[in-house]
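Hi again,

Forgot to attach this to my earlier email, sorry! This is the prediction with flavin mononucleotide bound. I've pasted everything inline since the attachment limit keeps bouncing my files.
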Amino acid sequence: MKKVLEVENYYKLINHGPCVLITSGNKKIKNVSPVAWITPLNDEPPMVIICVASSHYTAKLINKYKEFVINVPSVDMLKIVNDTGKISGIKSDKFSEFNIEYDFGQKVDTVHLKNCVGFVETKLWFRKDFSGVTLFVGKVVYCEVEKNLYDNYLIPQKAKTVHHIGSNKFFVSSKLIQV
Ligand SMILES: Cc1cc2nc3c(=O)[nH]c(=O)nc-3n(C[C@H](O)[C@H](O)[C@H](O)COP(=O)(O)O)c2cc1C
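Structure tokens for the complex follow:
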């Protein structure tokens, strides 16, 4: 037996990809924020979509510097996900406030997070505003993944990626099922 779900809660049923940390800016100016609303758009050429509130510092930096990096956190980084989602980078340097380690990019000026499962560097390809939210399409130009967490696919029981199901609730990847 099913129950009616309010239409504004539809995303709680379908948006269980990994919650990611988006880094934006350039070599000097940097910001980091969690984003759960993310989806691949294509693999050849590799393109990805993120949806970011237009008022967020993240959106302003992506508009300005035309690139962003998707960092995939493991459950060990959940505190960073929570902390960086509570304040805006307009008001605070989240990297120093929360002691977040970063490295410089390979193909972009935007930094990536040192201890993440992997990261995806993108150059902005397209943007569109939808009543307060900006959809950013990034063209993937470079990515890296931790060797021991990946064997042609992410190893879910080792990578322990975090999946946002709404408000302060997540589940963690734990088991590989092959069919
Ligand atoms: C788990 C989690 C997921 C989030 N997902 C999104 C998202 O998909 N899009 C968005 O615009 N904001 C999302 N947020 C909210 C922003 O990350 C948050 O408002 C952040 O403080 C914005 O910071 P900024 O102004 O430095 O960019 C999420 C927050 C959390 C905690």
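The chain has a mean pLDDT of 96. Residues 57-65 form the longest helix (9 residues).

That should be everything now.

G.
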